[in-house]
Design brief:
The protein is an alpha+beta fold and about 240 residues long. The chain folds into 2 domains: about 70 residues, Orthogonal Bundle (Arc Repressor Mutant, subunit A); about 140 residues, Chorismate lyase-like (Chorismate lyase, 3-Layer(aba) Sandwich). The strands form 3 sheets. It has a 6-stranded antiparallel beta sheet. The chain has a two-stranded antiparallel ribbon with strand order 1-2. A two-stranded parallel sheet has the order 3-10. Helix 1 crosses helix 3 and helix 2 packs across helix 3. The longest helix is centred in the N-terminal third of the chain and has 22 residues. It is globular and about 60 Å long. The relative contact order is 0.12. One of its GO terms (molecular function) is DNA-binding transcription factor activity. This is Transcriptional regulator GntR family. Keywords: DNA-binding, Transcription, Transcription regulation.
């Protein structure tokens, strides 16, 4: 529903505003102001603020203690790239203190048998391939290949908007945004020039993520193949008892 998507977008903007203030050291002793005061500062309702705070707490970035307040877990914030949320890799790179950059291009190619099986389309169906090289301080650290069936596009090919992430590309160019992603995490060893584009020498390890992206109705809208130079950036999850 448009209203639900708008509310989620406002919560995400509030979350991003909080993250920027956290990184700028805006909160003395890493303690956030009371909710009523913070909501006024950000110009949002307390309901929206609580949703943003809850998300940051679920990611392990904040600790909320009743009668004591809300505190930044700075050691968690800086330790690694959090994969718990659907956010651009460029944002995660910035959260580690690096200057992010991206080089990208796109092309149309027929779906191979393996890709067609994942995307639930016919073999040979035309698909948009978006290739991204993400940089940290000018060094290549992550490669991403996004694949989306042309049939899912909401705009003509010449009007495709790549954005700066898989999620922005799909949100702006396809009929539905990504609601959630299923990710396989694989340990790989570099050999024969792979992974292309990264500074990983033969025999050294790297991480590969195979992601399938779903709509709110559980339709497959795309897939991504992500390769990460673990010697330069580190991936991690927060697992906690719910």
């Amino acid at each position: 529903m448009p209203g639900g998507r708008g509310a989620r977008s406002l919560t995400e903007r509030t979350r991003q505003a909080l993250l920027e203030q956290i990184h700028d050291g805006a909160f003395a002793d890493d303690r956030l102001p009371p909710e009523a005061e913070l909501a006024v500062q950000l110009g949002v309702s307390r309901t929206t603020l609580r949703a943003a705070l809850h998300g940051l707490e679920a990611d392990g970035l904040l600790t909320r203690r009743r009668r004591f307040g809300t505190f930044v877990n700075r050691h968690v914030l800086r330790s690694a790239m959090r994969l718990n949320r659907l956010v651009p890799f460029s944002t995660l790179i910035a959260q580690q203190g690096h200057e992010p950059g991206v080089r990208q291009s796109h092309r149309v190619a027929p779906a191979s048998a393996a890709i067609a099986e994942v995307l639930r389309v016919a073999e040979g169906a035309p698909c948009v391939h978006v290739d991204r090289l993400l940089l940290a301080g000018g060094d290549p650290v992550i490669t991403v290949e996004d694949v989306v069936p042309v049939a899912w596009l909401a705009v003509p090919l010449e009007q495709v908007h790549l954005g700066d992430s898989t999620f922005e590309f799909i949100a702006h160019s396809c009929r539905t945004p990504v609601d959630y992603s299923a990710t396989d995490i694989l340990a790989r060893v570099a050999r024969d020039g792979e992974p292309a584009g990264l500074l990983v020498v033969d025999g050294e390890p790297y991480t590969e993520l195979l992601e399938t992206h779903f709509s709110r109705d559980h339709d497959v809208v795309g897939l991504s193949r992500v390769r990460v130079d673990g010697s330069r950036v580190r991936l991690s999850f927060i697992r906690r008892d719910t």
